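Deliverable D4.2, example record:
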Amino acid sequence: MKTVLLIDDEEKLRGLLSRIIRLEGFEVLEAGDGKSALKKLKQAEVDVVLCDVKLPDANGVELAGAIKSEYPLVEVILLTAYGNIPDGVQAIKNGAFDYLTKGDDNNRIIPLLYRAFEKVALSKRVEQLEKQIGEKYAFHNLISASRAMQAAVDLAQRVAVTDTTVLLLGETGVGKEVIAQAIHQASSRRNKPFVAVNCASFSKELLESELFGHKAGAFTGALKDKKGLFEEAHTGTIFLDEIGEMPLELQARMLRVLETGEFIKVGDTKPTKSDARIIAATNKALQQEAETGHFRPDLFYRLSVFQIELPPLRERLADIEPLALHFTQVFAAKTNKKNKGLSSNFLAALQQYNWPGNIRELKNLIERSVILTDSDTLEVDSLPYEIRRSAQSASAGKTLSAFDLASAEKIHIQKVLNYTNGNKTEAARLLNIALTTLYRKIEEYKIG
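Output generated by the structure prediction step:
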């Protein structure tokens, strides 16, 4: 039931208001002073506080601030016999929902209570959604069965509790934004904004305005001031995806933000501060880009304080089955189909494919297979032709004579790669061969 806490030292007025509010179907708690009101707030779940400004032991305007600080989802409506503008202004600054004058505004109390309850319900829903998002991106919910991915997640967990700038490296589709979200959710900034922008999606002029904002009249079409994403992300996290695509002209401005926490809006003359943690990501070899003059070396070194490289899916063979099962459950629920399993042939085909699009490609493929499959199990015939062909080629390779030296070597290399979950450096060490030799043999034997 929706609950109102009525705080007023005038017992007769308090009783009258209580009866009126109860007739609307609300539960009413009563308190005659600030101390007993705070005690009731601790004991019961209150949605709206209706509070007199003049209390025997407290000032209602100050009490409103204390209540909002301790119970941010509770809305406070202040009542006063002698309304004045300064008190009203201060009440709103302290977080009060509204400020009413007794007698003059009595007919506004009930409609105002309904509006306050609507805001409380909305705030609770937002809080619930934020918790769900936080849980979704929590580290313990990330699927990382392979050693290579577990190592990357471990690094992310270690850096999450700091404010250090992070650079995520890896191919398109490996889950860089998911890791960025997890870092944010595990940080002290989790209740602050997480703002993501793809630097490759905008022209230089638009990206500058998106990141730093602009003043009215800064350029044609700038009719009013606009906040940039760095300002929106203040006290939170900004995720700069595909930062390797950022134009060189903007990189100098990025460097200033990293070094000083300040930037100048387009068309402005004074700096704006932003305490936003920066997580950047790229699928480019950023150090090589810096060495060839396509990326500012000073910005690269400032961004790469803490680098995390996310391995491609073809080097995370142990992750394919749990990821595929997860996506199968998700899309089976979305399409109102039974929870589906994976046939052994279907899973084998997934593990033999090279996955140029990584996890994003796997996700799209599973959605397609779930839609096409009416049985309880996903079968190979629901896969696209190129994946079926890849599986057939791999199977054909296994029919080589067991006495053939090349065949035996290929099978042994594949077993070692499976053991290391696709980690080629570790595989080369176990095979006691150079990494370049391993790559050559993988190419020669067409090991997927």
